[in-house]
Known about the structure:
mainly beta; three-stranded antiparallel beta sheet; 5 strands; globular
Amino acid sequence: MSHFSVQRIRLYxxxxxxxxxxxxxEKIPIKSYEWYRLRVEHRGLIVKVYLDGEAFIIEQDQHFFxxxxxGLWTQTDAVTFxxxxxVEALEEWN
Length: 94
């Protein structure tokens, strides 16, 4: 009983309690009751957001240069599960 719906992924940064959107992908086909792998890479100024290996957002951001905090947020009417959440330091791209 799975069906497709079109969803969006938004990328935010939060500085001093203020949330600012700086990236969005509006039309992502999502199948209900399926697992997906979400990955976010931040190297230097480049932030990339992948869903199952496909880059949906590629943006530049010059606000953070060191490791810090990471968070996930869903809409209030969403039913979302997260599993195997992991954060690791990446090497800089050359």
